[in-house]
Amino acid sequence: MPKAKIDDIEIHYDIHGDGPPVLLVAGLGGAGSYWAPQVEPLSKHFKVIVYDHRGTGQSTHQKTRYTVEGMARDVLGLLDSLKIDDVHLIGHSTGGAIGQVLGIEAPQRLRSIVMYASWTKSDPFMHRVMEVRKAAVLNGGAMAYLRATPVFLHPSWWVNANWQKLEEMEAKAVAAFPDPEIAASRIDMVLAFDRTADLHKIRTPTLVVCAEDDFLTPAYFSHQLTAAIPGARLVLMEKGGHAASQTMTEEFNRIVTGYVLEQERRHAL
């Protein structure tokens, strides 16, 4: 499987399809496999790039102080390695935060941004939620963390209908799960992130997407992002939880594919 050498680490990536480049950036879990329901539909129109964040999946598991800005630099390093000038970026949660950083610091590398189930800066509610997740991984290890994750990501009705699938996914994920210290540092990264003072600088066309029943990053964060980013467009899905791309796949794919196709047409003019 291909890996890009970036500084002192390797980033695992895969490319599907051909056409204008679309980069899918996962959330806190960091694994490119999160996007499995999107790869095939998007690759009918685009060159789709998925990758594992530093510290996750098949990329280098490095013990360091993680930051969203550092994750954004890894994206630039990956694009440079692949000799890709600019992309449409679709970012889930932490991936949306990475999109914020790139929109502020490297707008020339972006054709459009989709910030899906993302946030502006952590608030007391988010702190409490992430403290619970951090305690789970430090005190209970990988399986305790993975077993708890669907409670935060998925609606109850979806968990009940897909519990066997979730257990199979958890069993596979344990083998690739990082050291608990790495997972905890990545949680600290989320809580430390705050670029609200710079959001007005983003001029890249931006779509903000969130499910109204998102527990982990409630929809008010998406309202805040839309208000702060000039010209941003907001789409609220009625349901789907924090992982709406997995739970309401057809609706999510239709929304995002339509937006990126629209922006690509404008980019090509």
Output the keywords.
alpha/beta, Rossmann fold, eight-stranded mixed sheet, 8 strands, 49% helix
Helix content bin: 40-55%
Structural class: alpha/beta
Radius of gyration in whole Å, from Cα?
17 Å
Summarize model confidence as the mean pLDDT: 96
Number of domains: 1
* Number of strand elements: 8
| Poorly predicted sequence stretches spanning 5 or more consecutive residues | none
What order do the SSEs take from the amino end to the carboxyl end, as H and E? EEEHEHEHEHHHHEHEHH
Based on CA inertia axes, which overall geometry fits?
globular
Estimate the strand proportion: 15-25%
Give the distance, in angstroms, between the N- and C-terminal Cα atoms: 36 Å
Biggest sheet overview: 8 strands, mixed
Instruction: Give me the CATH architecture, please.
Output: 3-Layer(aba) Sandwich
